[in-house]
Amino acid sequence: MGSGGYKCSAAGGMFRGSVRSGPMTSSGTRTTQNYDRTGNYGTASKDFDSFAPQNVKPFSKPYKEGTLSGQTGNIGNHRITIRDGSKKDTPTLEIRSPRPDGSTHVRQFRYEENEEGQN
Length: 119
Hints:
Layout: H1 3-16, E1 19-20, E2 25-27, E3 30-38, H2 41-50, E4 54-63, E5 66-75, E6 78-83, E7 92-98, E8 104-112
Parallel strand pairs: 3-8
Antiparallel strand pairs: 1-3, 2-3, 4-5, 5-6, 6-7, 7-8
């Protein structure tokens, strides 16, 4: 299977293993849909790697009372980012997809351990 099929399979797995969290929100030309996934930063990192993004760059910046860090890369014209925190203080994988009308569709996958502490 070519890398395109692998990436498509990675995306399918993300949605199959996720639960939609709240309604879609809009801000300017951006629409965002949040999803919940079971796991931690290690799980999010494996999911990020399964997309085999190109031009991956690490980042680190001040956030709240500490530092927010992660990686960002590209899959075609989509940008994929993993970070170790979010507004909800959970690891997050984000996929930003441009639309033909100039708007952006964002999918945010927030990772949390389940009640038993398992991934």
